[in-house]
Specification:
about 350 residues; mainly beta; Jelly Rolls; 8-stranded antiparallel beta sheet; about 40% strand
Amino acid sequence: MTTIDRIDPNVPLFVRTGINLASEGLGAKAVWASDEFFAPLERMLKDAPAEFFPDLYDDNGKWMDGWETRRRRGAGHDSAVIKLAAAGRILGFDIDTSHFTGNYAPAARIEACTCLNGDPTADTRWVEILPNKPLSASDHHYFRCESYESWTHLRLHIYPDGGIARLRVYGVPELDPSNEGTEQIDLASALNGGRVLAFSDAHYGDYNRILAPGRGRDMGDGWETRRRREPGYDWMIIALGARGTVSGIEVDTKHYKGNYPDACRIQAADMSNFGDGLTDALVTSSMFWEELLPRLKLGPDAIHNFTDEVADIGPVTHIRLNIHPDGGISRLRIWGKPVWHGK
């Protein structure tokens, strides 16, 4: 029997339902840091878990996978500014000090601002969205965010100095309701709020990248299952960023040449009343969702666009991507128009 993999249910709900708006892979940027002597700020935004190499050093000392400042010898503290991948409401944070033991930052505080045209200036108004919180060595620190506004930039303060391996900022990208029914968007894009809820297998690559912008960098930049040695097929359940009607589907197998799926099929449903999160009931019901795209052949290392084959089944909120029998998908685009207000 196939094991159902999903986001760890032991982490906070905001991790399971939010998008990491501080993801380098989605477009988050390091803007400024008071100090980057031991490790640059941009490493703190990387998507992969932090690594540790015991014997790796550079000209300034021990190489660390994250942001690390020098030892402060005067008053004050260090800080840094990052630009989020998309403007959005923040649900919570994971301040990760993995591998920072005698050099971690003992405390952190976060402020936010909205700058739609460029980066913050000296006149920018900052708002505290996470008060000063204690941190510990080599651990994940989950904090809820009580702010309900939309933000574009964050300023992270660490007290007084030290290192942070990764900063994850889980939130909901902001969509413009005025575009309802008029502008076609990628309803599955992570930058529009699309997220992976469950899958049958994800042995290779990074499954979240299937919803990322651009095309895959290599074979590790996408969703790939192991070779299936039993009957059946692999699948993935995705919550769309907005309820909408689907008019086009793009399945990209870039870099997957000897390991692309033979075919794909997509089912969909309007689960507006289901609520957030994942339950066994959702996974079970997905097997019986309406067919949005019939089973169609795929080829290696190519973009497959489907329009005429897409069924008109009305507004949907979730899709189930089935691949037959196994293999890799670099990117998935679900093109359509948002539909709000229960229409």
